[in-house]
Amino acid sequence: MTATESRPQSAVTAFRSPATSYYLLVAATTILVLLGLAVVLSSSSISSIRSGSGSAYSGFIVQVIALVVGVVALVVGSRMPVMFWKRIAPWVLFASIGLLLMVLAGGRTVGGNKAWIDVAGFSFQPSEFAKLGLALYLGVVLSRFRHKLTNLRDVFVPGGLVALGVIGLVLVGGDLGTALMMGVVVAVAFWVAGAPARFFGIAGALVGLGVLALVNTGTTRIARIVAWAEGSCSDVNECWQQTHGTWALASGGLWGLGPGMSREKWGYLPAADNDYIFAIIGEEFGLVGTVVVLVAFAMLLIAVTRIVTRSTDRFTQIAAAAIGAWLVVQACVNIAVVLQLLPVLGVPLPLVSSGGSSLILSLTAVGVLMSLARHEPGAQEAFKARPSVVRRSLAVVAKGTRRMKGRRRG
């Protein structure tokens, strides 16, 4: 076999390795975080100055602090055994419920949504914490009672009622977008657990009626949806944000205007560093930059799919699928809004958008996925057989040193 023939085979062998899921998660997360950090630095500078902070880097500094905390959570979480996540799952969920109750009691309202708590000068969004809590809790409960999900009572008790309670607390605060993303987490968890398909039809109909009722309670939501559905957007009505997001993407072309060269960030595009950061990526890095984002999320999806299909532990399957749905579906919704395929829902792009709560909890969620990936069948043996980076580096240095000594003697 020639060298050129062996390369494809070695690539296929590497992809089939039990450690592939772990490395896909590392690569995808690195790409998204680094690209997001660069664009947040660019897009948040103007809003930081306008906020009266006195520095163009105040928003970026907050993002860096959140990144450091999130990376620590990722590294620590990725080293934890699966049993650790099973044991703390109820406590994570109950803590998030307590925080959501604190929000309703004395939280801060932003953009019409009461979803924030201010602690020591920093804002925290407990609903992001609740997404992780729901994914882990449902992983534990549904893996234990999966054989009893054939009737409606067992679907509701205990998993369904708890999930409805958490989503209800978020809806009381007015955050419809986050509540819908939680609904996706719950639906995927029940689907992977093996709940009958007829229950999803009933739940879908009820959710549709509920969304219609909630939309009718806010004039802003109705105006945005009607303007989006009619396709009659102009830059002076409810479609201002989506119109300028489209202009940002269009002006980027193939290669973009260059890092930091966005025009829309100068007060034209609201939430340029958050909900509409994908538009700024397209403006500054062009079609190439947006494709890189899509490829990174595709890598994340492949990794989660591998974990779910290769694992034999039901908790791992359900929790990984729920977390993966949270990250990937939310990314798809965010991008669809920017592309005007959906009305504005106000959900950030995971691992990319500014926002300390979103970044910290997204990185923590990836840490959980990495922990589950490390315990795929055969993964531990693959990691042990593969020499560490430090050992490989030391071996290369030692080999080079021996060569240098041999040349001197010669």
From TrEMBL:
<feature type="transmembrane region" description="Helical">
    <location>
        <begin position="200"/>
        <end position="218"/>
    </location>
</feature>
<keyword id="KW-0328">Glycosyltransferase</keyword>
<keyword id="KW-1133">Transmembrane helix</keyword>
<feature type="transmembrane region" description="Helical">
    <location>
        <begin position="152"/>
        <end position="170"/>
    </location>
</feature>
<feature type="transmembrane region" description="Helical">
    <location>
        <begin position="315"/>
        <end position="339"/>
    </location>
</feature>
<dbReference type="GO" id="GO:0032153">
    <property type="term" value="C:cell division site"/>
</dbReference>
<keyword id="KW-0133">Cell shape</keyword>
<dbReference type="GO" id="GO:0008360">
    <property type="term" value="P:regulation of cell shape"/>
</dbReference>
<dbReference type="Pfam" id="PF01098">
    <property type="entry name" value="FTSW_RODA_SPOVE"/>
</dbReference>
<feature type="transmembrane region" description="Helical">
    <location>
        <begin position="56"/>
        <end position="76"/>
    </location>
</feature>
<comment type="function">
    <text>Peptidoglycan polymerase that is essential for cell division.</text>
</comment>
<dbReference type="GO" id="GO:0051301">
    <property type="term" value="P:cell division"/>
</dbReference>
<feature type="transmembrane region" description="Helical">
    <location>
        <begin position="351"/>
        <end position="373"/>
    </location>
</feature>
<keyword id="KW-0808">Transferase</keyword>
<dbReference type="GO" id="GO:0009252">
    <property type="term" value="P:peptidoglycan biosynthetic process"/>
</dbReference>
<keyword id="KW-0812">Transmembrane</keyword>
<feature type="transmembrane region" description="Helical">
    <location>
        <begin position="129"/>
        <end position="145"/>
    </location>
</feature>
<keyword id="KW-0573">Peptidoglycan synthesis</keyword>
<feature type="transmembrane region" description="Helical">
    <location>
        <begin position="176"/>
        <end position="193"/>
    </location>
</feature>
<dbReference type="GO" id="GO:0015648">
    <property type="term" value="F:lipid-linked peptidoglycan transporter activity"/>
</dbReference>
<dbReference type="InterPro" id="IPR001182">
    <property type="entry name" value="FtsW/RodA"/>
</dbReference>
<feature type="transmembrane region" description="Helical">
    <location>
        <begin position="88"/>
        <end position="109"/>
    </location>
</feature>
<dbReference type="GO" id="GO:0005886">
    <property type="term" value="C:plasma membrane"/>
</dbReference>
<keyword id="KW-0472">Membrane</keyword>
<feature type="transmembrane region" description="Helical">
    <location>
        <begin position="276"/>
        <end position="303"/>
    </location>
</feature>
<protein>
    <recommendedName>
        <fullName>Probable peptidoglycan glycosyltransferase FtsW</fullName>
        <ecNumber>2.4.99.28</ecNumber>
    </recommendedName>
</protein>
<dbReference type="GO" id="GO:0008955">
    <property type="term" value="F:peptidoglycan glycosyltransferase activity"/>
</dbReference>
<feature type="transmembrane region" description="Helical">
    <location>
        <begin position="21"/>
        <end position="44"/>
    </location>
</feature>
<comment type="similarity">
    <text>Belongs to the SEDS family. FtsW subfamily.</text>
</comment>
